Amino acid sequence: MSKTVPVIIASLVGFLMIFAFFSPQLLWLRQTAEDWFAIITTIAMIYGGLTLCFHHLKKISDSEAGWGFSAVTLLAFGVTVIVGMLKIGVVPETARNLNHPWSGPFLQEGGAFWWIYQYLFSPVVSTMFALLAFYVASAAFRAFRAKNVEAILLLVTALIVLLGQTKDREITTLFLPAMTDGSTSYLPIADLTEFIRKTIVTSGQRAIMIGVALGVVATSLRILLGLDRSYLGGDE
Amino acid sequence: MSSSVTILDRLNVLDRRWIFLAMALAVAAPILLGIGSDESPSPPTKRLFDRLEELPEGSRILMAIDFDPNSAAELSPMALAFTRHCCLRRHKIYFVTTWGTGVPLLDATIKTVVQSEFGRGDRPYQYGIDYVNLGFVAGDAVAISQLTSDIRKARSQDMQGTSLDSLPVMNDVVSLQDMQLLITPSAGFPGAKEWVQYAGTPYKIPLAAGCTGVQSTQLFPYYPDQLVGLVTGIRGANEYESMLASKYPVPYAEMSKRPASLRGGPQRWAHRLMISLIVLGNAIHFANRYRRSSHS
User: Fold this and answer.
1) pTM above 0.90?
2) Domain locations along chain B
3) Are A226 and A11 in contact (CB under 8 A)?
4) I need a labelling partner for B217 at 20 to 30 A (CA). Which of A56, A152, B164, B296 fits?
C-alpha cells in the first residue's frame, strides 16, 4: 500500500501532463499539477535540509573519518540559513516601511546574506572554475600525445579548434603566398573550425540526443506504468 | 649531444607548477596590461544581433539570467551586452532567473546597464514602465512551463514585492507567449535546453541563447530552427560586443566598456600557451621514442 498509492499518483499526474500537452482544454489541470509541484518542491527542500543536518550530525556523533568536513558543512549551512531567514543587516527600503526592519529584501546590498554571497560563495565557486585552466594546461602537456591514430585525430582537431577560437586563426594567412588575383590566401582555420563544429560535432551530438530522448521515453513509460519503482527508494 | 639529453631529461620530469605559473602569467599579464581583442561575428551571433535590430521599438524581451558566479566570467559579459542592445533599441525588458544563486547577478546586470547607463538622460529607462525585475522563479523546468501559461501563476509580485498588475510594463502581458523574443544566457540546468523544450518550441516563441564554450556542442543541434541565435562563450560575447561597438561606436567602441573584448586578450594568450604545450609535449614524446629506438 505504501508504494501503490505513490505509483498511482505518479502515473495519473504523468499521463495528465502528457495529455495536457496536446489538449488545450486540459490546461487548467496542468496548471493545478504545476502548483502542486511548487508546493511539494518546497516541502521537499525543507525535508532535504533536515536530512542533510541529520546525516552530518550522525557522522559527527560517530566520529567517522572526515567528520570535520561535516562540521564545516553544518556550520556553513546553519549560518547561511539563519542569516538569510533573519535578514541580518537588512534595512527598510522605503520610508513607508521604516517601522518594519524586516521589510527589505534578504539579498539587499550590504546585508549579511549579500556579504556571504559576494565575498564567500562567489569567489569560492569562481576559483573552482578557474582552476580548470591550470589542470587542462598540465594535462595538455603530459597526456595529449600522438600515441596512435585516434590520438593523432584528436590532437589535430583540438589544435584546429583551439586556434580557431581566437583571432590567432588569422595568423595562418601570414605564411602563405598571395593568390594570383593579388588577394591574401589563407589557411581556412576558421572554416575548418566551423566545419568540425557544424558537421562532425553537431551530427554526433544529435545522435546522442536522439538516443538519450528514446531512453528517457522508455524509462518514463516504465515509471508511468508502474514497472519501474526504483524512484521510491526500494530495490524493485 | 649531452646538453640535448639533459634538456630532454629535464623536460621529462618538468614540475607541473612551472606550467601553472606559465598559465597564470598568460592570463594575468593581458588582464593587467588591458590587452583586449576584437572578434569578427559568427553567423549564430550575428543572427541574434540582427533579430534585436529588426524588432520594432518597444518590443517585449524576456531576459532569463540563468547562471551563477561559477560561469559568470563567461556569461556576465554577454548578459550585459544583450541588455545594452535591448536598451539601445528601446525594447521593454522582463528580467527573470530560474537559478536561486542567479539573483545577485540579475541585479548586477540591471544596475550596471539599465540604471547606470540608461537611467538618466532625455528618455531614461524607468522601472515598471520600461523594465521589470521578476526575480527568481522556483521550480526549474516547471517554472518555465508556468511562465508560458501564466506569468502571474509563477510570480504575482516583482522582486520588490509590487503586484505585477500595478506595473504598466505588465499591461497586456499574460504569459511568455506575449513576448517577441526570449533571451537566456544560461549555464546548465535549468537553462537554454529547458527554455527550448518548455517555451520556445512548443509555443513557437522566438528564443535565443548564450552559453559557456563547453556547452555549445549540446546547444548547436537546436540552431537555427529552435534557436534564432546562439552566442557561445567569451568569444561569442566578444563578437556581440564588437558588433555593438561597430553599430554604436559612442561609447561602446571604448575597450573599457567591453568586458568580453578585454577577456579576449587573456583567452588568446591562454590558447597560445595551450597550443605550445601540446606541441612541446609531443616533441618530447617523439624525442623519447627516437632515443629508445636508437638505444635498442
Assistant:
1) no
2) 2-33+265-295, 43-257
3) yes
4) A152
